[in-house]
Amino acid sequence: MLNSGPEERERWAGAETVERILRTAAELGYRRNPHGASLRTARSQLVGVVVPRLQDFVLATIFEGIDQAAAERGYAAFVTNSLDDPAQREVRVEQLLGRRVDGLVLCDARTDDPLLRMLDERNVPYVLALRASGDHVGAYADEAYGGRLVAEHLTSLGYRDPAVIAGPEYASTANDRLAGFRAGLRGVELADDRVVRTGFDAEAGRTGVAELLARGPAPDAIFATNDFAAIGAIGALREHGLRVPEDVGVVGYNDTPLADSLPVPLTTVRSPMLDIGRAAFTLLEQHLTGESHESQTFTPTLVPRASTRAQRQSDGK
Q1: What is the pTM of this model?
Q2: What is the rounded CA–CA span in Å between residue 130 and residue 141?
Q3: Whole-number Å distance between alpha carbons of 241 and 37
Q4: Contact present, 210 and 236 (Cβ < 8 Å)
Q5: Which residues cross the membrane (predicted)?
Q6: How many CB atoms are located within 10 Å of the residue 310 CB?
Q7: Cβ neighbours of residue 16 under 8 Å, at least 6 residues apart?
Q8: What angle, 0 to 180 degrees and rounded to 10, lies between the N-to-C axes of helices 86-98 and 114-121?
Q9: Which positions ≥6 away from 70 have C-beta within 8 Å?
Q10: How far is it, in rounded angstroms, from Cα 144 to Cα 269?
């Protein structure tokens, strides 16, 4: 009964009795039991978070934002890795639901996502973060705008033969960054053979460069839709005797801590990932309490560094 609210307590005892009991409980060091409270409210005050890989700086920062906001509202957040594998993702979600989480924040949504349809059919409360899927509610960066910023930056410096190492087609982040880049080009075309689909890690960047060079001459600039892919691309270019930025300019995405510490600091795009995480939890809580909730989009910014530079006519490009 000590878990009860004031009105409920007054139904089983007078005000003076309630005050005496609460004073005695405080003297004895009593603390409210959240599990007892959850029996009445049917709430566990637990939130499950699914990410592709928590070791990724961006995803770790988003989870930090979710965890901060959850703690401020009396919730605890638990995170698990899906490794972007649909089967493992489904298992992890079922494990979280088995622990009676009140709702889910999914950071690994896919463009065509049967898991979301299943959750809808089961009336499981959830929101998305980072990756979008259809018109599902979530907290996102304006990835198309970020891609546009990269295109405008490169063309303003005189690059005329860019290539893109894009992430997988199931990730809205990769698709939107690529679409924004195409839309932002002025007086320059992005040829189909200048786009390769790999992943978001360093090995993906190395693979992307190898594929581009196998198709023909090196581009004068590469936009990798993830900083780690950009770092892998820089290493592969160096192995092929190409210098950054003298021969090929390189731009990444996400402004990870490594970006500014490379031998050639990396031009990249920064999004407010902590804010995205906090917003995602707020949206989920609004969903749980029946409040109106709509997707929130945050604006990224370009961070120019030494991996891109103005091109001279004498460069022959």
Answers
A1: 0.85
A2: 7
A3: 65
A4: yes
A5: none
A6: 11
A7: none
A8: 20
A9: 47, 76, 77, 281
A10: 12
Largest CA distance in the chain: 90
Please list, in sequence order, all residues whose beta carbon lies within 8 angstroms of the beta carbon of residue 213, skipping any fewer than 6 positions away.
Answer: 240
For residue 302, give both structure tokens. Answer: 């370009």
Tokens 């053979």 belong to 193
Tokens of 193: 């053979």
What was the pLDDT predicted at 8? 44
DSSP helix/strand/coil, 260: helix
Please report, for the chain, the start and end positions of each structural domain, with discontinuous segments joined by +: 6-32, 44-141+273-298, 143-271+303-315
Percent of the chain as helix, strand, coil, to the nearest 5: 45, 15, 40
Q: How many residues does the chain have?
A: 317
Written out in words, the top-level CATH class of the domain with range 143-271+303-315 is alpha beta
Give the residue carrying structure tokens 């405080």: 26
Report the amino acid identity of residue 215: R
CB neighbours of residue 31 within 10 Å: 8
Closest by Cα among 199, 263, 193 to 227: 199
What is the full per-residue pLDDT of the chain (317 aa) written as tens digits? 444 444 444 444 566 765 776 676 566 655 444 444 443 446 899 999 999 999 999 999 999 999 999 999 999 999 999 999 999 999 999 999 999 999 999 999 999 999 999 999 999 999 999 999 999 999 999 999 999 999 999 999 999 999 999 999 999 999 999 999 999 999 999 999 999 999 999 999 999 999 999 999 999 999 999 999 999 999 999 999 999 999 999 999 999 999 999 999 999 999 999 999 999 999 999 999 999 999 999 999 999 999 999 986 544 44
Dihedral-angle region of residue 29 (phi above 0 means left; psi in -120 to 50 means alpha; beta otherwise): left
Residue 298's DSSP bridge partners are 141
Whether 44-141+273-298 and 143-271+303-315 share one fold: the answer is yes
CATH number, span 44-141+273-298: 3.40.50.2300
